[in-house]
Amino acid sequence: MIEQHAEVTFNDRVAADTYLMGLKSPDIAARAHPGQFVMIRVGAQADPLLRRPFSICGVRKDGGLLILYRVVGRGTRIMAGAGPGTGFDVLGPLGNGFDFPAQPGESLLVAGGMGIAPLSFLAQRTGQEVQILTGYACADQQIPFECLGLSHCAVLVATEDGTIGHHGRVTDLLQESGNHIPHGYAQVYACGPIPMLMAVADLTLRQGIACQVSLESTMACGLGACQGCAVPAAPGSDRRYYHVCQDGPVFEVGTLDWEQLQPHVP
Ligand SMILES: Cc1cc2nc3c(=O)[nH]c(=O)nc-3n(C[C@H](O)[C@H](O)[C@H](O)COP(=O)(O)OP(=O)(O)OC[C@H]3O[C@@H](n4cnc5c(N)ncnc54)[C@H](O)[C@@H]3O)c2cc1C
Ligand code: FES
């Protein structure tokens, strides 16, 4: 884990309230693995005090670290106002990452909203065409595939209001006739809101398909010290809780207690 003062190289608006930020952070970028995250201190002052966690969305050969973020509160508003040359204190790479698929062609990536950030990095690293299902609330939240380096992938879109792509949820795209993940997929990777992950977990567990999910949770320290990010382990595990920051954010679906998860994660 490295703490680095990283300069913003660009900070482009790519969709409604959504920005892609480049940070010059060669040491973190060199060690980053898809699924890992960084903690960014957004202000030099006491407020906001806590660092904010963000998935690593990609890395560039010149040492650039890509962060895709949606403006939801004070910290992300400060980030959105940062121009090139602004410096942020960045800690990372943190947490575990995705296990790479043995056969990328048999992998299905399912992203809800900002869940596309870690899955883009995974898709870039496979270097092969993978199928990605993305879901947004509406068309103006859709992030152009080109800016995520996903031109080589097959991407399907669903929007809840039907303004683009399939009218409905991203999990609708998962279900062929009946309630099944289409044949031919041996591994599912998912990141997004908890209800979406619950639906994916239900499908993959029932069909016996390997699935890794990347969870978001409230995080104060990001280092295993505050207990703030605990999620319940599956019944029968040797532990009652896992820490998303250290044991995750990527988990095999079968290791979590999905029935108890909702109350613990925003
Ligand atoms: C491992 C991890 C990876 C993440 N990756 C990304 C990413 O790639 N892109 C991205 O846009 N966001 C990501 N997030 C969420 C991001 O950390 C929060 O959106 C951010 O901390 C909000 O900071 P803020 O100061 O703007 O909002 P705050 O003022 O702290 O909160 C504003 C609102 O956002 C909600 N909120 C705060 N934190 C979270 C959270 N972790 N999950 C859901 N809602 C939250 C609060 O409940 C509140 O309603 C990630 C979170 C985790 C734990
Ligand atoms: S964020 Fe503090 S223990 Fe995980």
Q: Would you mind describing this structure in some detail?
A:
- With 266 residues, this protein is an alpha/beta fold.
- It has 3 domains: 2-94, Elongation Factor Tu (Ef-tu), domain 3; 98-214, Rossmann fold (3-Layer(aba) Sandwich); 216-266, Dihydroorotate dehydrogenase B (pyrk subunit), domain 3 (Ribbon).
- The protein is globular.
- Helices cover 18% and strands 32% of the residues.
- Strand 14 and strand 15 (241-243) form a beta hairpin.
- It has helices at 26-31, 74-80, 116-126, 170-174, 194-207, 258-261, and strands at 2-15, 18-24, 37-41, 52-55, 58-59, 64-70, 87-94, 107-112, 131-136, 154-159, 166-167, 187-191, 210-214, 230-232, 241-243, 250-252.
- It is built from 6 helices and 16 strands.
- Bound molecules: flavin-adenine dinucleotide (FAD) and FE2/S2 (inorganic) cluster.
- Residues 37, 48, 52-55, 68-70, 72-76, 114, 117, 216-219, 249, 266 line the site of flavin-adenine dinucleotide.
Nutshell version of this structure?
By secondary structure, this protein is of the alpha/beta class.
Average pLDDT, rounded to a whole number, is 91
Class by helix and strand content?
A: alpha/beta
Lateral strand order in the biggest sheet: 4-3-7-1-2-6-5
CATH topology of the largest domain: Rossmann fold
For the record, the CATH architecture of the largest domain stands as 3-Layer(aba) Sandwich
Q: Number of DSSP strands?
A: 16
Approximately how much beta-strand content do the residues carry? 25-35%
Domain module count: 3
- Which bin fits the share of residues in helices? 10-25%
The distinct ligands, each listed once, are: flavin-adenine dinucleotide, FE2/S2 (inorganic) cluster
CATH class placement of the largest domain = Alpha Beta
Label the overall shape: globular
Largest sheet: 7 strands, antiparallel
Strand and helix order: EEHEEEEHEEHEEEHEHEEEEH
Helix run count: 6
Which stretches of 5+ consecutive residues score pLDDT under 50? none
Q: How big is the Rg?
A: 18 Å
| Distance N to C terminus | 26 Å
Which homologous superfamily in CATH is the superfamily of the largest domain?
A: Nucleotide-binding domain of ferredoxin-NADP reductase (FNR) module
